[in-house]
Each structure stands twice: as C-alpha cells, then as structure tokens.
Amino acid sequence: MNGNIWIYLTVMAVVTYLVRVLPMTIIRKEIKNKLLRSFLYYVPYVTLTVMTVPAIFTATKCTASAVAGFITALILSFFKKSMILVATVSCAVVFITELFLH
Amino acid sequence: MSEKNPKKTAFISGMRDGLPIALGYFAVSFSLGIQAKEAGMSVLQAAVMSLTSLTSAGEFAALSIIATGGSYISMAVSQLIINLRYILMSFALSQRIAPNTSSLHRTCMSYGITDEIFGVSVKQERPLSPFYTYGAVLLASPGWVAGTALGVAAGNILPGNIVSALNLALYGMFIAVFIPQSRDDKHVAFAVIASMLLSSACAFLPYIKDIRAASPGTMIIILTILISLIFAIIFPIKEDDESNTEEK
Q1: Same domain, yes or no: B71 and B136
Q2: Predicted complex ipTM
Q3: Which of the listed residues A58, B7, B10, B170 has the most CB atoms within 10 Å of its CB?
C-alpha cells in the first residue's frame, strides 16, 4: 500500500457524492421534451435488468442454485408479491437447492 | 393511507422497504469487509469507507486500487466510471420529486441514491417524498456499514452456504421492480427482454466481454443509455402513460 488510505477514502466519497448530487440539484424543472421523458421512463427498468442479468447467474455457489433462485423471483414478481417476500423466498430456494446438490 | 402526516407515512414506508435492503446489504458488505481486511484496512477505515461512499461495485473496485497502491487519479476515475450510473438515477429521480423540493432535501436525498434504494423509490407514487428516502437510508446505510465492519473484524463466521444464498437477495429485489412493471406495460416488457438478451450477449462476445470484465459499471451505463434511447424513440410514452404506471 503506497497512498494514504484517508486520502483514498476522501477521493472516493467526493466523486461518488458528486455524481449523485449534481443532476438532483441542477435539474429543478419538469422536463417537457418527450424523447427525454421517454428515455428517463425506461432507464430504471433497463438498468436494473442489465445489473441483474447475467450477473445473478454467478452470484451464488453454483449456476443451478442461481437459476432456481432467478426463476423463483420471476414467478413471485409476476404475481406482484412484495420485494421482501421475493428476496427472502428466492434466497431460501438457493439455500435448499445447494443443500440437495452439495 | 392517512393524510394526517404524509411525512411520517412516507418515512415509515421508507423504513419498511429499507429493512430488506439493509439485510441484503449486510450480507454483501460482509464479504466486502473480508476483502477490505486483505487490502490492509482497519475496522474504522472500512466502516468510514462504507459510510461515506455507500456503493458496492465502487468499493470493491477501490479495494483493489488501494491494495495495489494505485494513484489518487486512478481512484477518482474508477469511481467516476463505475458510479456514473448514479447520474442517470439522480436524473430520473429529479423528475419524480416535487419540483419545489428544497435544496437541502435534494442534497440530503442524494446521499441515498444506490441501486437498491433507487429500485424501491421508483415504485413509489409521484411525487417521491424525501422522507421516504430518509426512512430507507436510515436502515440501509447502517446495515451496509455494520456488515463491512463486521467483515473486517470477524472474517468467516457466516457459513459459506448462507452467504451464497444471501447473495441472491439484492437481485431478487431488482426483479421485483422490473417484472411487475413489465406486466403492466408491454413496452417495458420488450425493453426488459431486450436488456436481458443484450446484457448476456455482452458477457460472451469477444472484445466486448473484455470491456465488461474490466469495467462492469461502464457496460451497465452503455447498455442502459443505448437500450433506453432505442425504446424512447420506437415506443415514446404517451402523456397519460406515466400516471397509469404509478397506480400500483
């Protein structure tokens, strides 16, 4: 380790906070532009999907348990179950699957 | 829902959604803490890092820079690139809060823009209340910090199969956001399917997969902008679309 750890931490905190705070404080009006509004409408769903797939398949000990958890989450969400239920049951399915496989 | 004290209602609702996030964070930050220890950090340093940065991918990347003695510039650039997605989230949230929200609320709320809190925030009715975010952050952030600190201090106390199962928690929460919306809006469903296919393809295609391995955050931004823009052009929202989607 060469650098001073506290300077590293300060750099991290400043950069990370700036990307979070700038749009929120600068953009104060409702955007009227239809293309931009449409773009911002899709952003959350697209970005959450891209973060989930394919990363989810390597998140657990083996692909099989991840697939089982993924399918469980898909089915429960399709029936609009709450986030906490979807998350908990999917985790339980991963645990049980690995119990059987290993 | 009682209209008597909307701030309190929003705060409690935020805490309710913040609890599962805190539990998911705890599991992830626990393994972050184990790595922080390997990078030579103390409990205090790791806890301060998690409290002030509150970002999973960014902190994991930072640890490798710290461990290898990278420059401060490379630290700044890596954090900027990995966390650039927060710009999009902050941008999207700026349109979901009331336009007259004060600067103080805006600067405080911004601290809580993480993948997961953003995920639950977009499920809220418009306008999004700052107090919802405060409720969620109040639980999520301590969960993240405590997990990191404990990871450094206590190492491998959780059995591997529990950690493995908990790793799925955060993804489960993401899925609980984009799937219900796909049911309500078929354009979102197409966008979600396209995102799954393209994102998976990027993990296999030569050259592109190397970019993804080097910086998963960059890949997320590129794909998000590209896919959202294409869908915005092909399937622009109708003005009443957005209000429909908020009814759930």
Answers
A1: yes
A2: 0.87
A3: B170
